[in-house]
Design goal:
Layout lengths: L2 E7 L10 H6 L9 E6 L2 E6 L14 E3 L2 E9 L2 H7 L7 H12 L9 E9 L4 E6 L8 E5 L2 E5 L17 H8 L14 E3 L4 E6 L2 E6 L14 H18 L7 E4 L4 H16 L8 E6 L8 H11 L2 E6 L6 H10 L6 H4 L4 H7 L4 E3 L4 H5 L8 H10 L2 H13 L8 H6 L2 H7 L10 H9 L4 H15 L3 E3 L5 H9 L6 E2 L2 E2 L1 H6 L6 H4 L8 H10 L3 H5 L2 H4 L5 H16 L5 H21 L7
Parallel strand pairs: 13-14, 13-16, 14-15, 16-17
Antiparallel strand pairs: 1-3, 1-9, 2-3, 4-5, 5-6, 6-7, 7-11, 8-9, 8-10, 11-12, 18-19
Helix pairs in contact: 5-6, 8-25, 12-13, 13-25, 21-25, 24-25
């Protein structure tokens, strides 16, 4: 988990302990194992440490070698390859990343495999290089103001710099309200940016420039001809993805929902423990149960627990306290999150209390392995459907088709920020030519939805002292999924066909052959009621700001109630847009109220 921060002055003036110290204070939850800073001329680097690998325990950060320094948050998975190329090299990931930057410069991030974000300082060249991993598993935000660059692991932490203006970014706010988060660089704050996945940022006396880097390809599907061969290759890559995420200085645990994805992660982990490839002492699973609800997956969870003889922990799900959203917005100064993820928060302190620091999850499989559905609506629609969460896809498709902002957004506001053009513009440049490279580029240069969701999951885990580890976001696995024939992903009614075949012996038949997914829509309905129901949509402070229209928003909620009463829950048209309206309302009322405590 950990957290990094830094300040760089473009004109060469000496850096001091502030504002770095105040930024690090806002990242205190990320550093139970200590905090350290290093100042060298015009740069100040800081690190909040949480040791989650055996090597990290013995590696002090900021890591300094002569005129070079680095703060590194993450995990490298091609360590053997790097140590050979960078010999002599020590054992720590931060040192390996520093040596890689020393040798390969801006091309170094493309040679690193794993989840990472880092900032590297070269004093001789007076150059700062920041980078983020290919898929964006580790966050990095920055701002440029008053002649300096400030950066940190969370956007809200940057406001530890008291001089940074707190001004809403209306363009991104409009995207949230339209349920169509498109831009990856911008945040809800004007001037506060995210370094996108697969990007490097270089800062020197000339200013700041960011560019996308091209990672070396790590997967090859040539020569595969049969279902068995594809299944075996998937298993090989999935095994590697899980194995490297079991490298930990404390026992690793896993989320287990009973679905195909989390069950696959748990099954592979247990197989690795049994063959002696990884030490599984203390491995446990954590699950939620929903007694009496159609979404309860306890029967499937029990099948996995029984098959592998797991030490399992269960918590009965309860409606999330509405105060957690306001607290999250005030603490992070960011969008507060979602009911379907907030419901899992009670099991996080339990995992931490039992001594775990790293949590394996099954998220990401739907994005890469679900396979496209029936072809309809053209290539662009198919491409959007492949990479956007379903609720977002439907909203974006409608806005693009109608070229009109939703009624609950003020028409004047939508015109002022060119909302429809914002949502539509990035898609004009998508690669529409079929092929592996087009698919890969679309994945890493997609919309802001995937990055936004990942950062919220990582942020919520970090607040509870846990590190999020996602085997299905392994670059090797993603490249494989993006380049296999379509029929390896979807075969008739069977989605994730190659996973079901490749991991056949690791899954109980009831889970392996499952065709259903649990529906957690009721969590949103409960959250709406807890926040005040229709009354909350009739008194939006964002309406006074000129962003929203309370009448259409309240009408949308009444329609949601009618659909719910009829046993239907139109997620894309009703539920998700309502939550985005409510989420921005919570963020605005809390973040703009002058609440700045870490």
């Amino acid at each position: 988990m950990s957290g990094l921060a830094g300040v760089f002055y473009f004109d060469g003036r000496p850096a001091g302990p502030e504002p770095l110290g105040s930024i690090l204070t806002r990242l205190a939850h990320r550093g139970p194992d200590g905090c350290a800073t290093w100042i060298d001329g015009s740069v100040a680097l800081g690190f909040r440490a949480m040791h989650t690998t055996p090597e990290a325990v013995h590696e002090h950060q900021p890591f300094v070698k002569g005129k070079l320094g680095i703060v590194f948050h993450g995990r490298l998975d091609n360590r053997d390859e790097l140590r050979k190329a960078l010999a002599p090299a020590g054992d720590g990931d931060a040192e390996l990343a520093l040596l890689a930057c020393e040798k390969w410069g801006e091309d170094a991030p493309g040679r690193l495999l794993g989840d990472f974000a880092f900032a590297y300082w070269d004093a001789a060249r007076r150059r700062l290089l920041c980078a983020r991993d290919w898929i964006g598993a580790r966050p990095l935000a920055y701002a440029v103001h008053a002649g300096r660059l400030v950066f940190a692991s969370e956007p809200g932490a940057l406001f530890g710099d008291a001089g940074l203006p707190r001004e809403p970014n209306e363009g991104v706010i409009g995207e949230f309200l339209a349920n169509a988060v498109t831009h990856r660089e911008e945040t809800v704050w004007k001037g506060v940016l995210r370094l996108p996945p697969s990007h490097v940022l270089v800062a020197d006396a000339a200013g700041v420039r960011a560019r996308q880097y091209a990672p070396r390809s790590v997967s090859d599907v040539s020569g595969l001809a049969s279902d068995l061969e594809y299944g075996n290759r998937f298993r090989e890559l999935f095994r590697a993805a899980v194995l490297c995420r079991l490298r930990s200085n404390t026992p690793v645990c896993a989320d287990l929902s009973g679905g195909l994805d989390s069950s696959s992660v748990v099954g592979m982990a247990q197989a690795l423990f049994r063959e002696g490839a990884a030490e599984g002492k203390g491995f446990e699973t954590f699950s939620l149960s929903f007694p009496g609800r159609p979404c309860d997956e306890r029967a499937y969870i029990d099948e996995v627990v029984s098959m592998w003889g797991l030490q399992a922990n269960f918590e009965e799900a309860a409606a999330a306290d509405p105060g957690i959203y306001a607290a999250s917005a005030a603490r992070t100064l960011d969008f507060p999150g979602y009911p379907n993820s907030a419901v899992a928060l009670p099991i996080r302190p339990l995992a931490r209390k039992r001594g775990f620091r790293a949590v394996l999850t099954g998220i990401g499989s739907d994005e890469w392995l679900m396979g496209p559905g029936p072809r309809r609506g053209g290539v662009l629609r198919a491409a959007l459907r492949a990479v956007l969460p379903h609720p977002a896809f439907e909203t974006v498709a409608k806005v693009m088709g109608k070229r009109k902002a939703p009624a609950w957004i003020s028409a004047e506001f939508a015109r002022r920020i060119s909302l429809v053009d914002r949502i539509h513009a990035k898609d004009r440049h998508r690669p529409l030519v079929p092929g592996a490279e087009a698919a890969r580029r679309f994945a890493i240069d997609g919309t802001g939805w995937g990055q936004h969701m990942l950062e919220i999951d990582e942020r919520d885990m970090a607040w509870h002292g846990l590190e999020l580890r996602m085997p299905f976001y392994d670059r090797r696995l993603i490249e494989f999924a993006l380049t296999v024939p379509r029929e390896q992903l979807r075969r008739g009614a069977a989605t994730k066909f190659v996973l079901r075949g490749g991991l056949r012996d690791l899954l109980p038949p009831a889970v392996r052959d499952r065709r259903t997914k649990a529906d957690f829509s009721h969590l949103f309905a409960e959250a709406f009621r807890a926040l005040g129901g229709e009354r909350s949509f009739q008194s939006l402070t964002t309406a006074a700001r000129g962003w929203t229209n309370t009448g259409p928003a309240a009408s949308l909620y009444r329609e949601f109630l009618r659909e719910e009463a009829a046993g239907r829950m139109d997620q894309s048209r009703l539920m998700w847009p309502l939550w985005m309206i409510g989420g921005i309302e919570i963020w605005y009322s809390r973040a703009m109220a002058g609440i700045t405590e870490p």
